[in-house]
Amino acid sequence: TGEVRVDGRWHAGAASFQDQPFELSVSLRDSYLAGSSALLAGHDAGLHGIVNGHMEVRGTGRQMNISGSAAAQSVRRWDLLPPPAAVRASFAATYDPAADRLTLRGVGDPGWQHFRLSGTVDSVFTAPQAALALDLRHFDAADLLPLGLALKSHLPADLRAGGAVDGSAHITLRRGEALPTGSADFRFSRMELQSGATSLQVPAARLQWDGRRLQVAAATASLRSAGGSRPVELGAVLDRHGF
C-alpha cells in the first residue's frame, strides 16, 4: 500500500467527545493501486499504477468537512503495458455521521473548471445509494485519450484526439443493482480522431441517455486519408437489447 500516514488532534473541553473539534490529516505516498484499492475495497480493482494523495478531515463527531487531492501515475489496466496515463483530481465533501450521509461538493480538476462530479451518498456504511450529477464544461477530448489507451487494448499507439464536450448527467446508483438509472445530455464539438494519415472529423454530435436507452443522434462526419475525403453519417443506439 506504500506509506499511509495519519495525524490528528482533538481539542478537549466539550462536554461530549462527539462535540470536540478535531483535525485529521491522511496522506498516501507511492502506493500501488493494486494494494490501496484492496485496502479500501477488499479486493484488487484491476487497475495498476502509483498513487499519491492527501486528505484533510475537520469538524466534530456530528459533522465533518473533507477536502484533498490525489494524483496517479502509470495508470493502466492490469493486463496492459504502458503507454500509461496520469490522472489528477481535487475533492471536497461533508459527512454527517448521524444520517450516515456523504455530500460531495465536487470531485474533478482543480477548481472544477471543466469536470465536476457532485451529489450525495446515503447509508455510506450500510446500503450505499448515490445520487450524482456530472457536469462537463468545454472538457478537452484529448484529456481522455491517455486513459483510453491505458484501459483499452489494440488501439493505435499514434492515435490523437481533439475537440470538446459540454453537458451534464444525473446518475442514481443503488447497492445490489447492476445498472445505474438517470439521464444525460452531452454535446460534442470539433471532434477529431487521427492515426497516421487517416482522420475522422465530426463537427458536431449529441449523446443522450434517458435511463433506458443511450443514443447518438445522426451526425455527419468526414473520413480523410491520403486518397481524399469522404462523407460519413454516424449514429448509434444502446439499450437492453444490444448495440
Describe the structure.
This protein is mainly beta and 243 residues long. 7% of the residues lie in helices and 62% in strands. It has 2 helices and 13 strands, in the order ββαββββββαβββββ. The chain has helices at residues 33-41, 145-151; strands spanning 3-10, 22-32, 47-59, 64-77, 85-96, 101-108, 115-122, 129-140, 160-174, 181-195, 198-209, 214-225, 228-238. Strands 1-2-3-4-5-6-7-8-9-10-11-12-13 form a 13-stranded antiparallel β-sheet. Strand 3 and strand 4 form a beta hairpin. It starts with a strand and ends in a 5-residue tail after the last strand. The mean pLDDT is 89.
Q: What is the helix/strand order?
A: EEHEEEEEEHEEEEE
Number of strands: 13
Low-confidence stretches: none
| Helix content percent band | under 10%
Which structural category fits the helices and strands?
mainly beta
- Please summarize the sheet with the most strands: 13 strands, antiparallel
- For the termini, the CA-CA separation is 39 Å
Strand content: over 45%
Mean pLDDT: 89
- What is the topology, as strand order, of the major beta sheet? 1-2-3-4-5-6-7-8-9-10-11-12-13
> Nearest-angstrom radius of gyration?
22 Å
Number of helices: 2
